[in-house]
């Protein structure tokens, strides 16, 4: 199990001060042995508690301010020309020394309109074509009709790709065309576990088998006292959790569901949740410890408790060899 930090960067306040605070939190996380930082993206018509547009731009800024591995969770394909994305992701992999993971989701149709791009063809076919184009652009053996990213990515064959999505086709795509599956924050545990099972089944492996990846992002508030942890979550997570609630976006295995916060509690409770995830084949969890309105002291205390009492039980401190993790599905 690998543990990282997911950043919430809001469009409700100036960006640079938020990033400066986030970098301080990342330094704290790195000292405790967390291995990665992840950034999502959104294209809104009005300011929201998260995320900013252009995850790659934010990650490029972070590349010079942290030595943690970088990940997008997730980048929305409808906001990008796949050919341009191939170049930009390769360049970011250069900037971070070959430590980029590209988490991809399709995004809603309005994302394309707000990005000034046209939406054409069946969504699934477009997603599959984009994945093939990225692979070809990062491969030395690409045919003459495909773009070839110059400079190429540091990782042989390009950054590892994780695919998100709530339907069976998403798990199949993650298993056959990508390197892993990514479960969003608003996926309740039963949906995450269902998609994990489908992913590993498509790979023909037992959950947690060699080479595959199932990652997820979770809101996280930890305190020595369980009631205090829940009170802090109720006080400080409302803006972020309310975003999903207002849109009916909490999803269970059978459709829309009530909110669920499995990573809020004591270190012992967090340890039990991670054990349940590991049994289901989840290999990577990114913790949203500082959503909009969360005092930095609360985020640091969560990281302290996870770092001292939980992470040593689960975290693999050995960094992956560059290029190895992207070999499994090619």
Describe the structure.
With 330 residues, the chain is α/β, with parallel strands linked by helices. It has one domain: Luciferase-like domain (TIM Barrel, Alpha-Beta Barrel). It contains eleven helices and twelve strands. The chain has an eight-stranded parallel β-barrel, surrounded by five helices. A two-stranded parallel ribbon has the order 8-11. Strands 9-10 form a two-stranded antiparallel sheet. Helix 10 crosses helix 11. The longest helix has 19 residues. It is globular, with a radius of gyration of 19 Å. The two termini are 23 Å apart.
Quick structural summary:
Helices cover 42% and strands 16% of the residues. With 330 residues, the chain is α/β, with parallel strands linked by helices.
Helices and strands, with pairings:
Blueprint lengths: L1 E6 L7 H18 L3 E4 L15 H9 L5 E8 L5 H14 L4 E6 L3 H6 L8 H15 L22 E5 L3 H9 L3 E4 L5 H15 L10 E6 L1 E2 L3 H11 L1 H9 L4 E2 L2 E2 L7 E2 L1 H13 L4 E5 L7 H19 L16
Parallel strand pairs: 1-2, 1-12, 2-3, 3-4, 4-5, 5-6, 6-7, 7-12, 8-11
Antiparallel strand pairs: 9-10
pLDDT below 50 for ≥5 consecutive residues: which ranges? 321-330
From the alpha-carbon coordinates, what is the Rg to the nearest angstrom? 19 Å
**Total of DSSP H or I helical runs spanning 4+ residues:** 11
Shape: globular
The strands making up the biggest β-sheet line up spatially as: 1-2-3-4-5-6-7-12
Question: What is the CA–CA distance across the termini?
Answer: 23 Å
CATH C-level label: Alpha Beta
Major beta sheet summary:
8 strands, parallel, barrel
> How much beta, percentage-wise?
15-25%
| Structural class by SSE content | alpha/beta
Instruction: Determine the mean pLDDT.
Output: 92
* Fourth-tier CATH superfamily name: Luciferase-like domain
The figure for the number of domains is 1
- The residue fraction in helices comes out at 40-55%
Total number of beta strands: 12
Order of helices and strands: EHEHEHEHHEHEHEEHHEEEHEH
CATH architecture: Alpha-Beta Barrel
- Say what the CATH topology is: TIM Barrel
InterPro entries: Bact_Lucif_Oxidored, Luciferase-like_dom, Luciferase-like_sf
Protein name: Alkanesulfonate monooxygenase SsuD/methylene tetrahydromethanopterin reductase-like flavin-dependent oxidoreductase (Luciferase family)
Organism: Pseudosporangium ferrugineum
Keywords: Monooxygenase, Oxidoreductase
